[in-house]
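U., I forgot to send this yesterday:
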Amino acid sequence: MIHISNKARCGIRIMIYIALDAGTKTTVQDIYTKEDMSKRYLEQIFADLKKNNLVSSIKGKHGGYNITRPYNEITAYDIIVALEGEELTGDIDSKNKDLNQLLDNKLWQPLQSQIQDLLSAITLEALVNDYVGSQTNMFYI
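Result:
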């Protein structure tokens, strides 16, 4: 299985929480109460999301974070790249340059392309709608 970092997984959850709080500003404290993460770690994730223009922030007593674009224009790929960078499959150093080239052309680049296509097809809007739908179908005994 391809490794998607905990930071990227948390970033996607954070974006869903902010989207669920549409119309209000979401604070680090809001997310902290919902997730088992340190505030410092959350602040790092928020800083990367802000640096990549996925969220904006307002400082002060009534401050917090908002999503900067319509939810249907933000994809899972956008969020992961904002937190991890472009290369999802990574590089391996080796002395055998010919083998590296072959594997890069036949395996790693096609895999990267497939992952990018898949994650680019999943919008924040779809994730939020699926989450909301799953919560309304919960039955409690």
